Amino acid sequence: MHCKQCLQGYQNLCESLQPTLLGRHGAFADRVRAHWVWAIPLPEGLNHRDIGPLLCGGITVFTPLHEWGLSPTSRVGIVGIGGLGHMAIKFCKAWGCEVTAFTSSASKEEEARAFGAHKVVSSTDSKALAAIAGTLDLIIDTVNVPLDWNGLLGALAPNGRLHMVGAVLEPLSIPTFTLLMGQKSVAGSPTGTRSAMDSMLHFANRHQVLPQTEHFPMSQCNEAMEHLRAGKARYRIVLDGDF
Questions:
Q1: How many separate helices (H) and strands (E) can be counted in the chain?
Q2: Which of 83, 110, 117, 171 has the smallest C-beta neighbourhood within 10 Å, fewest atoms?
Q3: Which are the contacts of 147, defined by CB distance < 8 A and separation ≥ 6?
Q4: What is the assigned CATH class of domain 54-188?
């Protein structure tokens, strides 16, 4: 709370940032002590049993909309229909955007449309990507695997942005010429600021945007973890306290 980033309101970018869970005890605690800046009041209109994932995955995908000043007339692509992606689709639909969902799994098309996607495109089909060339103002990539970066950048309209929130472990192979000629950009962001979290919660309350969750009692934590590892989670798992 004294560096330049903190004083400008970007505490999530602080070089001395201390994660809540990583490198310390408390991941399954029933209480946590936090700095008052991060003690965030929850709106009464939201179901508090399901609100937890908004403060991680939710703010991660809300931040690009908040930071880049996206308009309701924007056309947005969401890559991946999972824990992050399904919330991104819901937020963008509530924002008023035309939403295109990218997925490698044809079986998720119906779910994507139920979340609010207007169009569904295969992320592995180069012809499908070529068919929407130059149409999207923003693409939010929520997955952690290499993709057809040239195809995705080609889908962007001039001045479009490919925004990374998925932790792709391999270096990106970006065609510079595509960036130059369309004045396009590649960006990324981790979670979001406290101010953005407040805005997100009020927005979610107004439009009743909540993650799709599955609930397990804390006593079945191991079963919940196996359910997650098996790729069966739809789409966030909440452990209900039964201390």
A1: 9, 8
A2: 171
A3: 79, 123, 141
A4: alpha beta
